[in-house]
Amino acid sequence: MKNGMKKLIALLLVVSFLSACGKKPEPTAKPTEVTETPAPTEETTPDATPTPTTAGRTHSAEIDAMTLKDRYKDSFKIGVALPANTFRVSMRTEVVKEQFNSFTFENEMKPDSLLNRDATQKGYPETNTEPVLNFGGIKSGLEFAKENGLGVRGHTLCWYSQTPAWFFTVDYQAGSPLCSREVMIARLESYIKQVMTYCQENYPGLIYAWDVVNEAVDIGTGDENGIRKSKNNWYATIGPDYIEFAFAFARKYSDGTADLYYNDYGCAGKKADIVRILAPVKEAGNIDGIGIQCHLSVGDNMRNAVYRTAKYFTDAGYKVQITELDIGTSQKGDRADLVQGMKYKSLFQFIEEAKRNGEINIDSVTVWGLYDTISWRSGENPLLFRMDGGIVKKEAWYGAMQDPNITSME
Ligand code: 9MR
Predict the structure, then answer these.
(1) Both 144 and 232 in a single domain?
(2) Any atom of ligand 1 within 6 Å of the Cβ of 264
(3) Tens-of-pLDDT digits for all 410 residues of the chain?
(4) Is the CB of 189 inside a 6 Å radius of any atom of ligand 1?
(5) Is the domain of 119 the same as that of 224?
(6) Which residues are catalytic?
């Protein structure tokens, strides 16, 4: 078969696959970007020293020998979300140490993990504005980071989700009435003070960014200003200015070694609202950056979802980080892997180039999980590695490395 014909057939296969792709709804983080049928825009460059991958494709031995953190060392940190049990599994820690220089606790640093319910309830009323916390669940991860030179993203101090209902009631008992605005402001201050102080005193300089407030913008079902109301006990007790209080307390107790972030999903569709809602926080000097989560799908346009959004926030005077990257696909098999790799390549190309040009002020990119079967979206295989006898690189990893054998998508 002639080369031109081969390319045409490959192109048709990719296009037909993509048009067959459906998008699954995500529980808390829905991609809102426009879905389009992307077409390859680059020529495939054959490599002189190819090595086989699990998909039977070939990749450059030079790229195989590199790691993500080294590839991007002059541009941004490369992070990964990890459950704390990772630190007991050497197969996982080896890959983490090799490829990444930052991590985020997937769940263990959230209020429902750090709050000690029994001690807080037993201590009431003395604990009324001083809840008791337990840091046992984050110790091994913080030690791992310290020993191996990784930075940590602190996720997350104030969120409507994964914060127990009992924390908001008058006597810390589930089912009791909600406490007053004044008491809840005091509890928020105490919580933020305790978490930041523990980390700063025991692991100085280790945490380089805090997600102070997570997912507070809800266009559609939020209040008249677009602030999340539904199932949001922070809003129910304090009111919409809980966002301002959280950032003010974070600034107050910060030793200055970490940037303070607002973090959200679907940023492409609500970027103007986010900037509008954060304006008073910025005015007060209490925020440094905006985290663009990036729970995406192969049908999303990376230019819109990532580049334009990051540029918008940069232009509004914020630093940006990609905080929870994953790109799901509803398809399985080698072709699906390849298409996903192309999407990862587009995303990394856009942001590396925009960083180089000074268009976006980004210093960290975090993927939301190490390998597919332990992802929160495991049904959509959204990550860079898969478990296959060991932790194996996918086309997605080669795409993230901008392997010339993978074509970019937009
Ligand atoms: O990945 C996390 C998953 O293990 C939890 O069950 C889930 C519960 O809310 O939270 C996931 O992480 C979320 C993150 O903290 C904030 N943005 C959306 C993420 C995916 O839901």
Answers:
(1) yes
(2) no
(3) 444 444 444 444 443 343 333 333 333 444 333 222 233 222 222 333 344 454 556 788 899 999 999 999 999 999 999 998 999 999 999 999 999 999 999 999 999 999 999 999 999 999 999 999 999 999 999 999 999 999 999 999 999 999 999 999 999 999 999 999 999 999 999 999 999 999 999 999 999 999 999 999 999 999 999 999 999 999 999 999 999 999 999 999 999 999 999 999 999 999 999 999 999 999 999 999 999 999 999 999 999 999 999 999 999 999 999 999 999 999 999 999 999 999 999 999 999 999 999 999 999 999 999 999 999 999 999 999 999 999 999 999 999 999 999 987 77
(4) no
(5) yes
(6) 215, 324
DSSP 365-380: EEES-SBGGGSTTGGG
46 within some domain: no
CATH number of the domain that residue 188 is part of: 3.20.20.80
Give the nearest ligand 1 atom to 293 CA: 17
Best of 30, 80, 106, 108 to mutate for ligand 1, by most ligand atoms within 8 A of CB? 106
Distance from Cα 170 to the centre of ligand 1, integer Å: 28
Spatial separation of the C-alpha atoms in residues 230 and 220, rounded to whole Å:
11
**Is the CB of 105 within 6 Å of ligand 1?**
no
Assess contact for 319 and 288: CB atoms under 8 A: yes
Cβ neighbours of 321 (radius 10 Å): 30
281 plus 305 within the same structural domain: no
| Protein residue with its CA nearest to atom 4 in ligand 1 | 376
- Do residues 322 and 397 both lie within one domain? yes
Q: Which residues pair with 105 in a beta bridge?
A: 82
Distance 355 CA to ligand 1 centre (A): 28
> In terms of residue numbers, what domain contains 182?
102-260+271-287
| C-alpha 113 – ligand 1 centre gap (Å) | 13
- Show the tokens assigned to 306: 């990532």
Q: Are residues 136 and 278 in the same domain?
A: yes
Quick check: 31 and 296 in contact, CB under 8 A?
yes
174 plus 302 within the same structural domain: no
> 162 CB under 6 A from ligand 1?
yes
Q: Are 255 and 203 in contact (CB under 8 A)?
A: no
85 lines ligand 1 (CB under 6 A): no
Q: Is 1 within a domain? A: no
Atom of ligand 1 nearest to the CA of 83: 4
**Does residue 28's CB lie within 6 angstroms of at least one atom of ligand 1?**
yes
Burial class, 228, CB count within 10 angstroms (exposed 0-12 / middle 13-18 / buried 19+): buried
Position 6 in a domain? no
d(CA 158, CA 228): 13
Same-domain pairing of 229 and 213: yes
Looking at the 3D structure of the chain, how many domains does it have?
A: 2
